[in-house]
């Protein structure tokens, strides 16, 4: 396996493997979150949203991306963002070809992200993933490479069809 800098010629292979990787994740996510949340994030379906978002990332941040090649073919990738204000690197995207899971590609890409962050003088590296059943493999991968979990709660409320007067504890908003 070789880890190389991203090239535009990798784009379609990376999009394809990412969508195949996340297909089972999104199948489980849909039933694990409230319907209004899923529908708000993915009104045209998860596949379209992911393809658009990942395509924009590959086109817009090529210098932040490294690709794992196996026999010269892209089999995984990582996007590492740097946040100088927090002295923190961020594993923004990590994807490995589902046909190659369990072969150390994700671990190698995480090591690359760590090296990228260290070389830039960052003091820590962070990764964020879901707490739903579909993201369990991602959580195991991060924890297996030494990431420590920071408990965060993210709440959503459906506002469709409600007004402020429908809320039992609504308070007037003071003027600025």
Automatic annotation (TrEMBL):
Domain of life from the UniProt record: Bacteria
MF (Gene Ontology): acyltransferase activity, transferring groups other than amino-acyl groups
Key word Metal-binding present: no
Keyword Acyltransferase annotated: yes
Sorted UniProt keywords: Acyltransferase, Transferase
N-acetyltransferase domain mapped to chain residues: 1-174
Family matches, as PROSITE patterns: GNAT (PS51186)
Protein name, as recorded: Acetyltransferase (GNAT) family protein
């Amino acid at each position: 396996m070789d880890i190389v800098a991203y090239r535009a010629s990798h784009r379609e292979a990376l999009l394809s493997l990412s969508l195949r990787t996340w297909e089972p994740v999104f199948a489980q996510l849909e039933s694990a979150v409230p319907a209004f949340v899923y529908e708000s994030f993915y009104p045209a379906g998860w596949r379209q949203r992911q393809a658009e978002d990942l395509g924009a990332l590959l086109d817009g941040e090529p210098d932040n991306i490294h690709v794992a090649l196996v026999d010269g073919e892209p089999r995984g990738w990582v996007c590492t963002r740097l946040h100088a204000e927090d002295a923190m690197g961020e594993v923004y995207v990590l994807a490995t070809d589902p046909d190659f899971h369990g072969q150390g590609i994700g671990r190698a890409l995480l090591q690359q992200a760590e090296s990228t962050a260290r070389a830039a003088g960052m003091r820590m590296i962070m990764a964020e993933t879901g707490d739903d059943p579909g993201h369990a493999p991602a959580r195991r991968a991060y924890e297996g490479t030494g990431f420590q979990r920071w408990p965060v709660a993210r709440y959503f409320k459906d506002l469709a069809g409600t007004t402020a007067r429908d809320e039992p504890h609504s308070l007037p908003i003071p003027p600025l």
